[in-house]
Amino acid sequence: PLDVTQYTVEELRAAVEAAANWGTYVTVHAYTPRAVRQAIEAGVQCIDHGQLLDEATAQLMAKKGIWWSLQPFLDDGHSSHAEGSSNRKKELEMVGGTEHAYALAKKYQIKTAWGTDIL
Fold first, then answer.
1. Cα(42)–Cα(82) distance, rounded to whole angstroms?
2. So where are the chain's domains?
3. Potential cystine with 88: which of 23, 26, 80, 81 (Cβ 3.0-4.6 Å)?
4. CA-to-CA distance for 41 and 38, rounded, in angstroms?
5. Does the 9-114 domain belong in CATH 3.40.225.10?
6. How far is it, in rounded angstroms, from Cα 109 to Cα 118?
7. How far is CA 25 from CA 54, 57, 95, in A?
């Protein structure tokens, strides 16, 4: 589901620490404000996706200097999910947040990157 928060702050923090030990960082695939806020609290440096974020979370990302790897998911008629299926409904929910996410990134001058999930 799009609205789940899969890991606890402690689990994410352990990943961040392990990555730092190797001289690298952690990025997460997350869509919701709760999932993104927990990731930021744990020290994650980049959020992939985030199409369902709210204004307050975008402001937090800007304040903390978190990168946002937005991806231009659009409903261009080329879905691999059957119309009416639960996966198609989730896809449409996420796609519906794309323009809003880009607007938030622009409004708060959040550092953005391009992901490769759709290539």
1. 37
2. 9-114
3. 81
4. 5
5. no
6. 24
7. 24, 20, 27
